[in-house]
């Protein structure tokens, strides 16, 4: 985004959609599926956006993964909805950060690691599944933690 576009967006309160690229692999040349499937994907995208909005207020529910799922659904069902989400002044920032640089903010990393740890402790000590279940869950959580920690926390300057 050029300096002039940033100034324009700042002065009009971000009401206009910023110009910029659409998500890679989701350009206007993306073939649309049959009409019934498009409606299903649009409905799922709407459900994912609603879940992400709830996640803004509930710290245990992640926001960005649901927005990414919504973007995927909208990219395959409705280009206007895809563009709306990708360029949304509030919701679009995390989607664009992931799309452009695979960034996971520090707050999201801390929240994810804390939630995964609490879940593991709860299952291991209170549910007490068989040993292979506890080990499997632990291995999956460690893999997710390694992935999260390997992602940058900020976009490069």
pLDDT averaged residue by residue: 83
Low-confidence stretches: 10-18
The strand count comes to: 0
Helix content: 55-70%
List keywords for this structure.
mainly alpha; 157 residues
Topology:
Layout: H1 3-11, H2 35-57, H3 64-75, H4 79-86, H5 92-101, H6 106-127, H7 131-150
Describe this structure in words.
The longest helix is centred in the N-terminal third of the chain and has 23 residues, at 35-57. With 157 residues, the chain is an all-alpha fold. The protein contains seven helices and no strands. The relative contact order is 0.10. It folds into two domains: 26-101, no CATH class; 106-150. The two termini are 14 Å apart.
What is the structure about, briefly put?
Helices cover 66% and strands 0% of the residues. It has seven helices and no strands.
């Amino acid at each position: 985004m050029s300096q002039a576009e940033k100034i324009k967006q700042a002065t009009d309160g971000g009401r206009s959609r910023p110009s910029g690229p659409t998500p890679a692999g989701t350009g206007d040349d993306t073939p649309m599926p049959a009409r019934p499937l498009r409606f299903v994907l649009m409905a799922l995208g709407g459900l994912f956006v609603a879940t992400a909005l709830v996640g803004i207020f509930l710290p245990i529910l992640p926001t960005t993964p649901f927005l990414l799922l919504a973007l995927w659904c909208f990219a395959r069902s409705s280009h206007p909805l895809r563009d709306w989400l990708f360029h949304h002044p509030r919701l679009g920032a995390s989607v664009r950060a992931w799309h452009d640089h695979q960034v996971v903010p520090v707050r999201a990393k801390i929240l994810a690691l804390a939630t995964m740890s609490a879940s593991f402790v709860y299952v291991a000590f209170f549910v007490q599944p068989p040993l292979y279940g506890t080990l499997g869950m632990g291995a999956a959580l460690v893999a997710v933690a390694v992935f999260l920690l390997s992602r940058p926390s900020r976009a490069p300057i």
